[in-house]
């Protein structure tokens, strides 16, 4: 073995104490049953969908099930509708997560810097949209922008494009704009809460030292605060991206996938429930699951954050 290779060898890890082993054992005993139930509830639908995706299977003819291997996946991946819906899903995911990250960080700064007497009130007010059920929120946004029952047109009638008869859900760009706005309004508080926990972990000493060295507010924010809360940002982006990629409720209620607003989740629903093509619908669901896994892996690898900390 070369000297350079020996130089890069990791130092031996410290032995694990008996107390730490006991705490780990207790943790598994307490969380093990819940973990087993969650794993069973989560894995069974995935395995069932993977199994059904290998068959030509319609719910109206359950006895005509025929094994066709990967033919359903080939049918889905060669269909232009799938790629169009994938683009819509990616667009919604990227735009909403990016905007929510900026707004959520701003709200987190406000809550973090507020005086102690107002922190509880601010957090309660900011978290109100996140506490509303998604279906209720989607119906509220739909009725606000609907051409018959909405009041938004009267607010923005002074704009060149907007008028009393402007139909927000009559074309792709405006419908997607409302859908993404409703998503941003609903889930930005979730991002702000995660980022607030990250701000609480930033040592005040680092900011004070940078201030003494002459760094301005923006420089301290870019070089001290944001790098110190990298783990919280990664968790917020991963959690929100996985949720946004599976968007269903808002699209189903506002447009039902019309005018080029259909997402992959809605496509899987229509294929399985409306057309009763269980095999094809299961294949779309499996592909959706793989896409979610890829998003998680890419995000975690991209941020390069070690969440485990030191061993033990």
From TrEMBL:
What subcellular locations does the record give? Cell membrane
Xref: InterPro entries: MetI-like, MetI-like_sf
Question: What is the recorded name of this protein?
Answer: Maltose/maltodextrin ABC transporter, permease protein MalF
Query: Topology versus the membrane, per the UniProt entry?
Result: Multi-pass membrane protein
Q: Belongs to which family? A: Belongs to the binding-protein-dependent transport system permease family.
Instruction: State if Transcription regulation is listed as a keyword.
Output: no
Q: Where are the transmembrane segments?
A: 26-47, 86-109, 121-143, 155-179, 278-300
Q: Output the GO biological process annotations, alphabetical, semicolon-separated.
A: transmembrane transport
Residues covered by the ABC transmembrane type-1 domain? 86-299
The main place the protein resides is: membrane
Q: Name one GO cellular component term.
A: plasma membrane
Q: Could you tell me which species this protein originates from?
A: Kocuria palustris PEL
Keywords from the named record: Cell membrane, Membrane, Transmembrane, Transmembrane helix, Transport
